[in-house]
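User: I'm curious whether this sequence folds into something compact or stays loose and floppy. Could you predict its structure so I can see for myself?
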Amino acid sequence: MTHEEHLAQMKKDEALKKRGAAAMGFDQDATSHHFKLTADGGIIEVLVNTASDDRNRNAVRSHLKEIAAAFATGDFSKPFATHGEEPAGVKTMKANTPALTFLYENVPEGGRVVIRSADAAVIAAVHDFLRYQIREHGTGDPLS
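Assistant: Here's the prediction. I'll summarize afterward.
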């Protein structure tokens, strides 16, 4: 990576954090995002980095509950607001919302949304969406 490419990436990452904080309602540096691909869909998980951080944990849980409810109606406006573009897979997920389930769950350090489908094409779109998130958030989670 050239110096110019590195500076451009740093600028992009900072813009993502700023948009993410506005769209999600919690400090992006105080939390960790994880995106996991599963055989029937995947998982969006956000955890606080400090166990005693009740303010951000509550904000994470509130946001993920909203995400599960919004996604279930085909509303993917929050990821657009965070990334400034429509993430990969969203068109197919919107068009096939009835073939998807979105279940919110509390975890000790935050929350998660479990995404499931029985339709192979929809599962592929969910995987595309999650891979996009892994790359954009730089989580280091497995892409497969």
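Summary: The two ends are 25 Å apart (CA to CA). Residues 3-137 form one domain.
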